[in-house]
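hiii, so i know i said id send this last week but things got crazy w the move. better late than never?? heres the sequnce for the chain we talked about at the cafe, plus the structure i predicted for it. fair warning i was half asleep when i ran it
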Amino acid sequence: MREPSGPVWAQSALRAQVSLKYFASAGSKLFDPKWRGGQMMQGMVKALARTMREHDVPASLIAAALTPLGASVLAKGAIATELSVACLLWWPRTRRLALWVGVGFHLIISQITPVRLFTIETLLVYLCFATPDAWARVVRYDPARHWLAPQIESLDWLHRFKLVSETGTALVVADRDRTEKRGLAALAVIAGALPLLFPLWLLVAALATVGRFVRPG
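okay and structure toks below
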């Protein structure tokens, strides 16, 4: 099967736009004393408090965010997040973590502010940061024992996985470097490569790491 192809310059241009957007947003906040100090954030939280309560944000968190210290921490956290994501998206070693932080950042924003269309657009552009390595990972599974393989196929919008049916085998995922993963480690590879499951990636990867250290023997 022929691998999908496309103009690399267009992908690079979209990536650059994402970083420039974050730099512009963070820069405008950083050089604004009211934003940097938290006053603007405090006003935003006050204006959006009702919406936040409707989305089940704990009242204690809203109250903390309305204090000068809480608003200042949130403002500086937003600036730091935007700057770090803008930079770390460009290094392969940090890109996945940067994308995960960005996804969480925008999902939280979409829940407490009326900017959901902006969130959807940004998350879609995040797909441009995916490495174009179609079918670089292999999932070997027994169709009689594992229900997960069809779900992987339906969610694999970027063609990251090649599914191989093998009777009598346990679910095994071979990553890009051909390292074979099983159990939670295999699920972490799957979650890290499927857009819809990506928000779960860090949690599953952390559980897999902990499990590796506490496993007896």
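btw Residues 8-30 form the longest helix (23 residues). thought thatd interest u
miss u guys!!
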